[in-house]
Amino acid sequence: MVPANLATLAGRLRGARRVTVLTGAGISAASGVPTFRGAGGLWRNYRPEDLATPEAFARDPILLWEWYAWRRETIAGCIPNAAHEVLARWSQGDGGATIVTQNVDDLHLRAGTTRLVRLHGSIWELSCSRACAAGSAPWRDERTVMPGLPLCPHCQAPARPAVVWFGEALDENDLRAALEATACDVFLTVGTSSVVYPAAGLVDHARQRGAFTAEINADATPATALVDLAIHGGAETVLPELDRLIAVPRGLV
Fold first, then answer.
1. What is the pLDDT of residues 97-122, one digit of tens each?
2. Which residue numbers are catalytic?
3. pTM score
4. Helix H or strand E segment including 160
5. HSE-up of 137 (CA within 13 Å, CB side)?
6. What DSSP state is assigned to residue 124?
7. How far is CA 49 from CA 22, 67, 116, 180, in A?
8. 1-33+79-120+170-253: which CATH architecture?
9. CATH assignment of 36-77+121-163?
10. Residues whose CB is less than 8 angstroms from the CB of residue 61 and which lie 6 or more positions away in sequence, other chains included
């Protein structure tokens, strides 16, 4: 027997013209990426929240880069899981789903996702800490071991991870793209705690614009009582089952 909530969501997705999916750390947990707030995400005796700030970089850039080198080395050993692969397929082709992610691991890219908005940037990109004119655009650097403190190749100022830290604003273009994507038929949140704004507010924007809203997450979140439908389970198992159900002709589920 197919659970009623899965069948309902599959039917909504099957009939939708525009689908948007917001993903968080939970979708990458099955790939081995430590969740930001979970016990596996701790490093030494520091809280991640105390390191992912402009103030932490200004205070001790070498310590911060040691933490990011640890994170990059961990992520480098991970591969996209079944949830990433399903969303990559959904994103492809004309009218494909838009994937908005809070993750910086780029596993969506590695899975082949084509319609992707990376709200918080990428751990595999660097930018100039002084935002010099030539170094204002992020550049790719996939090394896991840095030779000391990385420097901006243009002005030689210390380089920083091209990610959005606590206390920083999202890139205007990325935020605009995410807000535009809330004009959809189905808005689905996957593996996100729904506590980090403005990303957590996107589902409310979608609901106000008439979208059917649903949540897939291992545990209940602040959004659970607000969405039209909630499914508790791992994204790596729920999304493949949804993908299978969407392909079943209506009436046979």
1. 999 999 999 999 999 999 999 999 99
2. 120
3. 0.92
4. strand 159-163
5. 3
6. E
7. 22, 12, 25, 29
8. 3-Layer(aba) Sandwich (3.40)
9. 3.30.1600.10
10. 129, 149, 158, 160
Q: How far apart are CA 131 and CA 147, in angstroms?
A: 21
Q: How far, in Å, CA of 142 to CA of 76, rounded?
A: 9
Angle between helix axes 4-15 and 235-246 (nearest 10 degrees) is 60
- Burial code of 181-203, b = ≥16 C-beta within 10 A, e = fewer? bbebbbbbbbbbbbebeebbebb
Q: Hey, where are the domains in the chain?
A: 1-33+79-120+170-253, 36-77+121-163
Q: How remote is the C-alpha of 150 from its chain's centroid?
A: 25
Question: What's the pLDDT tens digit per position in 54-107?
Answer: 999 999 999 899 889 989 999 999 999 999 999 999 999 888 999 999 999 999
Give me the amino acid identity at 36: F
My answer on whether omega of the bond before 138 falls inside 30° of 0, hence cis, is no
Digit-coded pLDDT (tens) for 179-227: 999 999 999 999 998 777 788 899 999 999 999 999 999 988 888 889 9
